[in-house]
Known about the structure:
Elements: H1 4-12, H2 16-31, H3 41-44, H4 54-81, H5 91-110, H6 115-133
Amino acid sequence: TSGEPPRRALREQPTARAAIHAMLRATADEITRPDTPHYCMLILAAPAGAVENHAVREFLAGLRHDMLTTIRGRLARGVTDGDLTAPPASLDAIARYYTTVVQGLSIQARDGADRAELEAVITCAMAAWDTGLA
Length: 134
């Protein structure tokens, strides 16, 4: 359920840039709420572990892959809508970059980064967009 606000941001924002920015901010909001653990279960709870947990690892890997696919789909929508001029071949790399930022936010939060510190990371990630990443 905590993954829904970032996904909603990707669906509802009017431009690809606004969608990515809102997704990153929603992620930071979710992983720094005072009433929840400061991390994302999909990223940190079961990427490794005992052999008998293979099915859990595969399930979570599928959810992580789905997020990558969702981000890539939103970027493709931006190209179709005309608000993103990235060549189609680069959409996968851009999607992987922002997926990596999402995953890194979770690790940073787990290790004690607060909301303001995560916002600084988001600012850098969006600066990459503005300097030609997308």
